[in-house]
Design a protein that fits this description.
The chain has helices at residues 3-10, 27-38, 53-64, 78-92, 125-153, 190-209, 231-238, 253-260, and strands at 18-22, 42-47, 69-72, 97-100, 156-161, 215-222, 271-274. By secondary structure, the chain is an alpha/beta fold. The protein has a seven-stranded parallel beta sheet with strand order 3-2-1-4-5-6-7, sandwiched between helices. The longest helix is centred in the middle third of the chain and has 29 residues, at 125-153. The protein is globular and about 60 Å long. Bound molecules: nicotinamide-adenine-dinucleotide (NAD).
């Protein structure tokens, strides 16, 4: 095998590395974990107990080989994260990769007539606080708590999962429902844009903060994933995407593996937008 052929494999090889994925039992987090496990990493899925991270981690081990671990943890709780860190370090001895993926994804399509909670004028402070707590404060706490283990090791990679809505405004026409008055039309919640934009800021901040410790920090901004949304919604969304379709749920795996592996060894502080071209329009 030539040196270059060999390098094509070693650049993406994660054998012996330990990777944490928050929200790892959810739709995309599980697929992010799967590609890291397939590349050889011991993957730790951190998620709320209700999402059954232990069962999902067992599926990764069965499918890919490396020992994977599911830990029930609430990323808004320092105590819960410190306990998780202790379990991970006891079991694997290190933390090499952190994907800050967990977020609240409030479903505006479930909004009931006469209760337009998603609209800015009505948006509950409690929902604002809850969304910021998971999507932003959770990423800060995980970076602080797991990042210090990386500092002690003098290496590591953090990947923050932002969104195309971290770089463009939501097009609220996508969420409109026939027959509802203007002041009852559902909208993409303000917290989604705020959390995702702020994660890109957190990415830049951390990337220069820990460069001396060889910790790279990048963001990925995925576009929408098809997960059975109604035709009325997808038809409007497809028209806004140059590639004319939403993403498949495993379609971010290549970018995630690139950003978490040595293939991106000279890249830090950046936001990789993977959105079928939506944000270039
Ligand atoms: N699905 C998409 O179309 C899409 C598009 C762009 C970006 N994203 C982003 O990708 C990420 C994953 O999205 P998804 O569609 O897989 O969502 P999802 O709702 O399926 O997964 C989110 C996971 O986070 C977990 N979680 C929530 N609160 C938590 C807490 N306090 N502690 C620990 N875990 C917690 C949930 O239990 C869930 O398993 C999110 O950041 C989302 O904003 C998704």
């Amino acid at each position: 095998m030539s040196t270059t052929t060999n390098r094509a494999q070693t650049l993406f090889d994660l054998t012996g590395r330990v990777a944490i994925v928050t929200g790892g039992a959810g739709l995309l987090g599980f697929h992010h974990g799967a590609i890291l496990a397939a590349a050889g990493a011991n993957v730790v899925l951190l998620d709320l107990d209700v999402a059954n991270p232990a069962m999902r981690a067992a599926q990764l081990t069965d499918a890919h080989g490396p020992e994977c671990l599911g830990i029930a943890a609430d990323i808004t709780s320092e105590g819960s994260l410190e306990a998780a860190r202790d379990i991970i370090v006891d079991r694997f001895g290190r933390i090499d990769i952190l994907i800050n993926n967990a977020a609240n994804n409030p479903k505006v399509e479930d909004q009931k007539p006469g209760q337009p909670w998603s609209r800015l004028e009505n948006f509950p402070l409690q929902t604002w606080n809850a969304d910021i707590a998971v999507g932003l404060t959770g990423a800060f706490l995980c970076s602080r708590i797991f990042g210090q283990q990386m500092v002690a090791q003098n290496s590591g990679v953090i990947l923050n999962v932002a969104s195309d809505l971290g770089v463009i405004a939501p097009d609220q026409r996508l969420y409109r429902k026939e027959g509802l008055p203007e002041d009852e039309q559902p909208v993409k919640p303000v917290t989604y844009s705020v959390v995702k934009t702020a994660l890109i800021g957190l990415t830049r901040y951390l990337s220069t903060y820990w460069t001396a410790h060889n910790i790279r920090v990048n963001a990925i901004s995925p576009g929408g994933v098809f997960a059975g949304q109604p035709d009325e919604f997808t038809t409007k969304l497809h028209a806004l995407i140059p590639m004319g379709r939403m993403a498949h749920k495993d379609e971010y795996q290549g970018a995630v593996l690139f950003l978490c592996s040595d293939a991106s060894s000279y890249m830090t502080g950046q936001n990789l937008i993977v959105d079928g071209g939506r944000s270039v329009l």
